[in-house]
Write a structure and sequence with these properties.
Layout (H helix, E strand, L loop, with lengths): L4 H4 L2 H19 L6 H11 L6 H12 L4 H22 L9 E2 L2 E2 L1 H5 L1 H22 L5 H15 L4 H11 L7 H26 L4 H28 L2 H4 L5 H4 L5 H5 L1 H18 L8 H12 L3
Antiparallel strand pairs: 1-2
This protein binds geranylgeranyl diphosphate.
The site of geranylgeranyl diphosphate has 18 residues, from helix 5, helix 9 and helix 10.
């Protein structure tokens, strides 16, 4: 049962305020420095218009688990840095070869491939430095757990693994649901999962609460990707801030291509119901996470 209080929760204002908070923190934690070119390139993609979903999930989860947003803010920034670097590298000519991202030309289009690769590398390494250096008020064992969980989510067990299988699957017509599931749970789901779980770890959540939040995150992570696949077909490039129809053009296996549009939407709805069921034991303190789950299926970009 979903708490009725979530229906009264003002998600629009919540997201706006949290986006403002995260963007101010990102701007402060990564100011322009020397050598100017690399910092300019890093900031170009990091501060471009994004939903800030991963940092917001981290803050919300930390608060649900009894912590403050302040203790999770450096980790929230790190999550956005990792996410941004994955977008920069994903857009490179050797990967997805995309010209447009977050409503502007992709990083390599502006700075060249060499600097774009280095900007991604620098964002990735700085993410871990930011957590380690800027989380002094949290016990060191929790910070260490967050660093280990993020490293695992990003490497060959997570984003990198998902991206590799995605690249290997390109142009093949025998990609089945199992492979698609692997790609998405690793390429997209792993970072969303660690976003939620890291907030809980920083707050000192019990193992039980961490697992409830992990289930919530896994469900919304998959739903997020199913909706992403649907939007690639149904939304315009203007709405998406990136090229639309790319999956179709590349004949990529997607949930709509394997299940059909209607069944894909039903699947996303079912995942969101399951996500909310995982946190049903909580009251109004879980309203942000419930509302974000609903937003994932309602979003237009
Ligand atoms: C992480 C070491 C390392 C390397 C990168 C390129 C790569 C390996 C992985 C690809 C990961 C990727 C781009 C997954 C897609 C995730 C996704 C659905 C992105 C869109 O997220 P939104 O809609 O974007 O939250 P905004 O711009 O709003 O933040």
């Amino acid at each position: 049962m979903v708490a009725s209080s979530s229906l009264r929760f003002d998600l629009k204002s919540y997201l706006k305020e949290r986006q403002r908070q995260v963007e101010a923190a990102l701007n402060a934690i990564l100011p322009p420095q020397d050598p100017p070119l690399i910092y300019e390139s890093m900031r170009y993609s990091l501060l471009a218009e994004g939903k800030r979903l991963r940092p917001i999930l981290c803050l919300a989860s930390c608060e649900l688990a009894g912590g403050t947003a302040a203790i999770a803010l450096p980790t929230a920034c790190a999550l956005e840095m990792v996410h941004t670097m994955s977008l920069i590298h994903d857009d490179l000519p050797s990967m997805d070869n995309d010209d447009f991202r977050r409503g502007r030309p992709t990083n390599h289009k502006v700075y060249g491939e060499d600097i774009a690769i280095l900007a991604g590398d620098a964002l990735l390494t700085y993410a871990f430095e930011a957590i380690a250096r800027h989380t002094p008020e949290v016990p060191a064992d929790r910070v260490l757990k967050v660093i280990a969980a993020l490293a695992r989510a990003v490497g060959a067990e997570g984003l990198v693994g998902g991206q590799v299988v995605d690249l290997q699957s390109e142009g093949r017509d025998d990609v089945n649901l199992e492979t698609l599931h692997y790609i998405h749970t690793h390429k997209t789901g792993a970072l969303l999962e660690v976003s939620v779980v890291s907030g809980a770890i920083l707050a000192g959540a019990s193992e039980e609460l961490q697992e409830q939040l992990r289930t919530y995150a896994q469900k919304i992570g998959l739903a997020f990707q199913v909706i992403d696949d649907i939007l690639d077909i149904t939304a315009t490039a203007e709405e998406l801030g990136k090229t639309a129809g790319k999956d179709l053009a590349a004949k990529k296996a997607t949930y709509p291509s394997l299940l059909g549009l209607d069944a894909s939407r039903e699947y996303a709805d079912q995942l969101i119901t399951e996500a909310k069921a995982a946190i049903a034991a909580f009251g109004a303190e879980a309203d942000p996470l419930r509302a974000i789950a609903d937003y994932i299926t309602a979003r237009k970009h």
